[in-house]
Amino acid sequence: MPTSSPTVARPADPVSGSYRPLALGDVSFDGGGYWGQWQGLNAERIIAHCREWVERVGWLGNLRAAGDGTLPGARRGRLFTDADVYKLLEAMSWEFGRAGDETWDEQAAALLAVIRAAMDDDGYVNSFFGRPGQPPRYSDLEWGHELYNYGHLLQAVIARVRTTGDREALAIGIAVADHICRTFGVGGIESVCGHPGVETALVEFARLTGDDRYREQAALFLDRRGQGTLADVEYGRQYFQDDIPIRDADVFRGHAVRALYLAAGAVDLAVDRDDTELLASIERQWEATVARRTYLTGGMGSHHQDEAFGEDFELPNDRAYCETCAGVASAMLSWRLLLATGRPRYADDLERVLHNVVATSPGRDGRSFFYANTLHQRTPGSPVERDVQSPRASASQRSAWFDVSCCPTNVARLFSTLACYAATSNGSGVQQHLYAAGDYAAEIDAGRVAWTVSTQYPHDGVVEFTITEAPPTEWRLSLRVPEWATSATLTTPTGTVPVAPGMVRIDETLAAGEVVRLDLAIEPRFTFPDERIDGARGAVAIERGPLVYCLESIDLPGGLELDAIELDSAVPPFMTGDADVAVSLIERRGTNASWPYGAGGKRPPGESHTVRLEPYSEWGERAPGAMRVWIPMAATART
Ligand SMILES: [Zn+2]
């Protein structure tokens, strides 16, 4: 049954698997460092910004009105806005658990009181359905998001209970979960929600309460999906993954966030039930998706129209959707697969998407966000007003808020739990997956291990591990060497050796006070696309460590346009004296043809320029401008 022990304050607590996640109380990024700064910004600005906006636009008011009996007249916004209040509650709860700031405890309690008052006697809570003048409950499973909202409410309750032991929060969660089981269990409505998300929440709620009925309900939802219980829609049933049973699918398809949330729920169920067939199915789908349907940034979703995956290799850069929530969902899924299997490939992907999608969305002011994360912005676009909400994907700059406001609160809840993603333990040792500066501790079979990570990563590749507490008997520290780190070295008390990408286990029992040093030898590098990706063919991208870089128009010499340059691939990317990554660009001549097609032929090269690049996650921070990740290479045939 629930407890407020910090050892269970983690967003996912699987019953089995290769690795066990550390809890919030086991890790502190307070020393600064890259992710520590993001957590600090989340605590100081992002969560408060979201709190201000859910009030301002009426999302919180909708739930208040549900309690006051003033709906439907008082209702504002799209039908799924309740979920953003729940995600904010989750973020506040984890943040209180992480750093102990009582502001978030008080604010979370206040939100819970509003939600409790909005709830009907039978556990139903929703501000859009079920009252006179509103559509009846569960009358629109395709688009209604009622179970999706519950998923976020249950995750918020789990966060609250795991960080405070709040019994009233638990009672709300049980009322909701029991309502779901009564309404959608055997003999009830034999269908699913158009937007997955409740599956992973029900499994986690079963882990929290020890009540397997909730896990059973998650299994029912997973088994029903793909049976065509939802009506067909204009985007086809694959939009909400109701086209193929989840065990039979070969690749993620349809709406990216839905597909990834569903897969995360499937992994949760598979590890708790030792369902190796289901786990293998999700691994297979993940492999196919990463191999053929994922952007260099780790972003997923090529279609604006249905926020969906494209076909294999359909990865247009200027129409990349790469919703921030799909990045969050991808991180959730990769982390679950890492815990389940121990394969470092999943941590590589987790790191890629955290650095290049999740950290791209929020501005460094903590008050603005990208909803979609394009890889090519052709024009500077128009300025975004700071105090108005934007249509979700149309803004060319970060926006304060959106009519569909799923992304900011998703970033907030992920950042508040980020400490749980960096390292893991198992019986015989601890494993570091993300190189975040901070203090770590874990209980393993031999006893307690504690260590400090010191690093400027990702700006520098040197990572030092100082063991601060170690058991007297044998234990092992394992470190992930990222797939790009092909010249890494490891220094332990017995010497320095080269290490290859993958998981490196140090076969020495380290004692307190001993230091291990991993040098990942970060250098800027060219990255070339698979020839089948038409959207990037003939172009090259630049990466350094885990960071994707981009070219911004603001950095071009005076008068030069972003579409009037090519990259001189004979000159490798290099570091400038200012510690910037730079490349050699060549002006492209004769681009003013009245008909942009022709017989081809080489043109004489134009003038060369050395131009600095920007980490993609920071694009648009200095000024509105055009931007591209993939830069065309010079010396190919031109009209
Ligand atoms: Zn979103």
Number of helices, where a helix is a run of at least 4 consecutive DSSP H or I residues:
13
End-to-end Cα distance, whole Å, is: 70 Å
Relative helix content: 25-40%
Major sheet characteristics: 10 strands, antiparallel
Q: Give me the secondary-structure category.
A: alpha+beta
Question: Got a strand count?
Answer: 24
Structure description:
- With 639 residues, the protein is α+β, with helices and mostly antiparallel strands.
- Helices cover 33% and strands 17% of the residues.
- Strands 3, 16, 17, 18, 19, 20, 21, 22, 23 and 24 form a ten-stranded antiparallel beta sheet that branches. The protein has a seven-stranded antiparallel beta sheet with strand order 2-8-9-10-15-12-13, with no helix packed on it. A five-stranded mixed beta sheet has the order 1-6-7-11-14.
- Helix 2 packs across helix 4.
- The chain is globular, with a radius of gyration of 25 Å.
- The protein starts with 19 loop residues before the first strand and ends in a 7-residue tail after the last strand.
- The N terminus is likely disordered.
- The structure holds zinc ion.
- The site of zinc ion (ZN) has 6 residues, from helix 11 and helix 13.
- The site of zinc ion has 6 residues, from helix 11 and helix 13.
Question: What's this, in brief?
Answer:
The chain has 639 residues and is of the alpha+beta class. It is built from 13 helices and 24 strands.
Short descriptors:
639 residues, alpha+beta, ten-stranded antiparallel beta sheet, seven-stranded antiparallel beta sheet, 13 helices, globular, binds zinc ion
